3-phosphoshikimate 1-carboxyvinyltransferase (Streptomyces misionensis), 446 residues
Amino acid sequence: MAPNTASSALWPAPHASGAVDATVHVPGSKSVTNRALVLAALASEPGWLRRPLRSRDTLLMADALRAMGVEIEETVSSSSSVAAGSDAAGEAWRVLPTGLHGPARVDVGNAGTVMRFLPPVAALADGPVRFDGDPRSYERPLHGVIDALRALGARIDDDGRGALPLTVHGGGALDGGPVSIDASSSSQFVSALLLSAPRFNQGVEVRHTGATLPSMPHIRMTVDMLRAVGAQVDTPESGGEPNVWRVTPGALLGRDLTIEPDLSNAQPFLAAALVTGGKVLIPDWPERTTQPGDRLREIFTEMGGSCELTEYGLVFTGSGAVHGIDVDLGDVGELTPGIAAVAALADSPSTLRNVAHLRLHETDRLAALTKEINELGGDVTETADGLHIRPRPLHGGTFHTYEDHRMATAGAIIGLAVEGVRIENIATTAKTLPDFPELWTGMLGQ
Ligand SMILES: O=C(O)C1=C[C@@H](OP(=O)(O)O)[C@@H](O)[C@H](O)C1
Ligand SMILES: C=C(OP(=O)(O)O)C(=O)O
């Protein structure tokens, strides 16, 4: 059989010859785009997504909703045809909700948002919906969604492992009501149940019973976006019980939403300013957001940079020094690979804590980061819940990426400072940022 040249190809990571000085337009947020698609599909009237992210994860979400009967029209308006500065410029998707139905087949790829957010939607469809995906999707936890949906009245056929592949036999409606889940392996279990709950007959009361709950900002994002389309949501933060979320049944409004840039995808570019002592402007950085990437302002400042939120966006400036950090990343786990890469180039050790659940992400990220940084000469050890990173001079070599977009961008960060780093399968960045190689070389003026 011919080798898979696309994925086995090695990408010579560009080495920075000096301080970067660039403006980088980062495409829309994956997490916001995929929530907006689900909410628009469940609404009682058409809606718009402006500047959606066009990437593997969001196209899988759109195609899955189309397979269940939703119409999604893709339009592009040139900036010359709309008022200057208008949010209407660029790509826009118009979502026309219809009666959800099977039979349908859904390819989740390796998208956590698709594999977790859509089984509840399928339970509302009329007919069977088959879910399948990449080999890694079979290993990612889904039990919280499967068990909860069964408890709420859904019929699901799976192979008993609490994972993909599976078939949801939608009955056109779902009872809903109270349910307990352990979401310690993924916040997406909670988000998944809340997103569809306005359409359950009794809404939902989700009680998290596990010891820890990762990625709280992503649950806040779910709650904020539900409220913005008219849903009534009670949360622990709004005076409710700890670890309990309630959604009241009701119709959802169609919304005209402009998607924020993906702040987690801004991470490698901010890291470039930090490790080269340069400066990067990210236009349209939101003043207020639930995206976990906003925490980078604080984390990368502690690691040696400084930032200013201006009317043009976020200006992040490196000082030339990169410091280690001791940090709890439980809320912002998806930032770990990029922080680990910077930490490997720092002037002091780092400890990254409270991210044991990353072992079940796109790959086992703790094992992958340890192995790949150490193979370049680094000194990283896994702890029970994270990484301990002692910087050492690194050398070139192959950086394997395990079909994980954030491993690929982590390798690119190291490559800026270390000559001769070759990244396996840079195309895997297409999961959330298909233009990464071009944006990266553009930033470097190459
Ligand atoms: O809801 C979301 O959009 C996400 C939640 C988080 O998942 P986990 O809670 O599984 O870490 C995050 O890591 C993922 O990238 C996106
Ligand atoms: C964990 C991630 O993705 P997913 O939505 O597939 O869980 C990620 O993007 O870092």
Q: What stands out?
A: Residues 111-113, 334, 361-362, 406, 432 surround phosphoenolpyruvate (ligand 2) (CB under 6 Å). Residues 30-42 form the longest helix (13 residues). The mean pLDDT is 95.
